[in-house]
């Protein structure tokens, strides 16, 4: 999926390197003024959504996020056979045996045929029972839902607030037929993986709001034909994509360092909880802008999963343009090295004003690390974006890298 941006001078001093325009796109700017500097992610069947998270905690998985199926890889790390390597790598699939839930904006439709057989049959809608009606009444009594902030293939997000104290919240509605993957808790109850992951994170912070990098899950309701999540919505804030855009298309190295240091700490926190986010990117990183130092928050755990020791995944969930090289070559990837790769992608897009990152272009050296960056920063990027996952530093090693010290 191609990503586009147009040219504009860095507003904070020396001109930033120019981004290469990858595809033609419509622009509202006049021919006289030239195209704007907006960072555009163009996709088929695109939908309208807000980039400003100061008005939303929109689960921002873009429509270029896809689920692709490759050959099966054993948990012991053994690679695929030659015969299996010849299988078609990018077969769309809605199911993941490694427990990932559906994202806010899936790329595939509900009519995609699964690897297990025919098309999904639509469930017959039944009248909600009294317990469902009671839950709905509880939701409406506790929270006020306002304007819609975003809508995608797997749900919609609305602004709102908690009536008791006017706390800003995001209310996320996910149709039940879009919750494909379940997690069974210790009591034998089935939950969506997104809910299970966020409950585990909430347990660590003892329910405190705003004390950790991941946004907090405040409440969730199982309402017959839909799942409703009530999430923390920091204000004022905006996603990193928008933050970069309003700052001239790229950030200064020192500011990027502040953001990356917080991201590394946040991903180590997830790793300690055996949680794999799977889709760390500009749109899923929230920047709180209420103070002089930007604060990082992580959003959209719709593709996340729980990690087992030495788990090796053979179905890719995430942004197709950011697939790690090992997926392209072996149809297999692991949580740690993939997270490090994604952090490298985020830093690359934060510092470079050229074409947005695509793994295939980077491998072919059509995208290169700027020589204008400090030597330590260049080394940090190179270690994150190593083609060989075994050559990448671990998250703990990144934390100790000279560039972040």
Automatic annotation (TrEMBL):
<keyword id="KW-0547">Nucleotide-binding</keyword>
<feature type="compositionally biased region" description="Basic and acidic residues">
    <location>
        <begin position="72"/>
        <end position="87"/>
    </location>
</feature>
<keyword id="KW-0808">Transferase</keyword>
<feature type="compositionally biased region" description="Basic residues">
    <location>
        <begin position="117"/>
        <end position="126"/>
    </location>
</feature>
<feature type="binding site">
    <location>
        <begin position="149"/>
        <end position="157"/>
    </location>
    <ligand>
        <name>ATP</name>
    </ligand>
</feature>
<dbReference type="GO" id="GO:0004674">
    <property type="term" value="F:protein serine/threonine kinase activity"/>
</dbReference>
<feature type="active site" description="Proton acceptor">
    <location>
        <position position="279"/>
    </location>
</feature>
<protein>
    <recommendedName>
        <fullName>non-specific serine/threonine protein kinase</fullName>
        <ecNumber>2.7.11.1</ecNumber>
    </recommendedName>
</protein>
<feature type="domain" description="Protein kinase">
    <location>
        <begin position="143"/>
        <end position="404"/>
    </location>
</feature>
<dbReference type="InterPro" id="IPR008271">
    <property type="entry name" value="Ser/Thr_kinase_AS"/>
</dbReference>
<comment type="similarity">
    <text>Belongs to the protein kinase superfamily. CAMK Ser/Thr protein kinase family. PIM subfamily.</text>
</comment>
<dbReference type="GO" id="GO:0007346">
    <property type="term" value="P:regulation of mitotic cell cycle"/>
</dbReference>
<feature type="compositionally biased region" description="Polar residues">
    <location>
        <begin position="1"/>
        <end position="13"/>
    </location>
</feature>
<feature type="region of interest" description="Disordered">
    <location>
        <begin position="1"/>
        <end position="87"/>
    </location>
</feature>
<feature type="compositionally biased region" description="Acidic residues">
    <location>
        <begin position="56"/>
        <end position="65"/>
    </location>
</feature>
<feature type="binding site">
    <location>
        <position position="239"/>
    </location>
    <ligand>
        <name>ATP</name>
    </ligand>
</feature>
<dbReference type="InterPro" id="IPR011009">
    <property type="entry name" value="Kinase-like_dom_sf"/>
</dbReference>
<dbReference type="Pfam" id="PF00069">
    <property type="entry name" value="Pkinase"/>
</dbReference>
<dbReference type="InterPro" id="IPR051138">
    <property type="entry name" value="PIM_Ser/Thr_kinase"/>
</dbReference>
<feature type="binding site">
    <location>
        <position position="232"/>
    </location>
    <ligand>
        <name>ATP</name>
    </ligand>
</feature>
<dbReference type="GO" id="GO:0005524">
    <property type="term" value="F:ATP binding"/>
</dbReference>
<keyword id="KW-0067">ATP-binding</keyword>
<feature type="binding site">
    <location>
        <position position="172"/>
    </location>
    <ligand>
        <name>ATP</name>
    </ligand>
</feature>
<keyword id="KW-0723">Serine/threonine-protein kinase</keyword>
<dbReference type="GO" id="GO:0005737">
    <property type="term" value="C:cytoplasm"/>
</dbReference>
<dbReference type="GO" id="GO:0043066">
    <property type="term" value="P:negative regulation of apoptotic process"/>
</dbReference>
<keyword id="KW-0418">Kinase</keyword>
<dbReference type="InterPro" id="IPR000719">
    <property type="entry name" value="Prot_kinase_dom"/>
</dbReference>
<feature type="region of interest" description="Disordered">
    <location>
        <begin position="106"/>
        <end position="132"/>
    </location>
</feature>
């Amino acid at each position: 999926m191609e990503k586009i941006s147009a040219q504009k001078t860095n507003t904070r001093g020396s001109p930033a390197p120019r981004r290469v325009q990858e595809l033609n796109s419509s622009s509202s700017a006049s021919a006289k003024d030239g195209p704007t500097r907006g960072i555009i992610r163009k996709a088929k069947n695109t939908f309208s959504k807000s980039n400003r998270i100061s008005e939303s905690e929109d689960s921002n998985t873009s429509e270029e996020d896809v689920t692709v199926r490759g050959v099966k890889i054993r948990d012991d790390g053994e690679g695929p056979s030659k015969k299996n390597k010849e299988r078609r790598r990018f077969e769309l699939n809605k199911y993941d045996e490694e427990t990932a839930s559906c994202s806010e904006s899936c790329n595939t439709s509900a009519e995609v045929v699964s690897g297990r057989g025919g098309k999904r049959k639509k469930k017959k809608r039944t009248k909600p029972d009294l317990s469902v009606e009671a839950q709905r009444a509880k939701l409406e009594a506790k929270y006020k839902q306002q304007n819609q902030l975003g809508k995608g293939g797997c749900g919609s997000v609305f602004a709102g607030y908690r009536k008791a104290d006017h706390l800003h919240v995001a209310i996320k509605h996910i149709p039940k037929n879009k919750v494909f993957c379940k997690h069974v808790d210790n009591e034998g109850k089935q939950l969506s993986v997104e809910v299970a992951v966020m409950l585990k994170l909430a347990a660590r912070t003892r329910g405190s709001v705003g004390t950790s990098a991941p946004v907090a899950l405040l409440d969730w309701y199982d309402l017959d034909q839909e799942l409703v999540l009530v999430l923390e919505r920091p204000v004022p804030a905006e996603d990193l994509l928008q933050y970069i855009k309003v700052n001239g298309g790229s950030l200064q190295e020192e500011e990027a360092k502040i953001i990356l240091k917080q991201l590394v700490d946040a991903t180590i926190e997830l790793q300690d909880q055996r949680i794999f986010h799977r889709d760390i990117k500009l749109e899923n990183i929230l920047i709180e802008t209420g103070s002089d130092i930007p604060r990082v928050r992580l959003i959209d755990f719709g593709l996340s999963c729980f990690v087992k020791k030495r788990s090796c995944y053979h179905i890719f969930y995430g942004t197709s343009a950011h697939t790690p090289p090992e997926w392209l070559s072996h149809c297999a990837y692991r949580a740690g090295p993939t997270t490090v790769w994604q952090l490298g992608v985020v830093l690359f897009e934060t510092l470079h004003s050229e074409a947005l990152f695509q793994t295939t272009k980077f491998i072919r050296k059509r995208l290169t690390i700027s020589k204008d960056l400090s030597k330590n920063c260049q080394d940090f990027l190179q270690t994150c974006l190593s083609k060989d996952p075994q050559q990448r530093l671990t998250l703990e090693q990144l934390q100790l890298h000279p560039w972040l010290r």
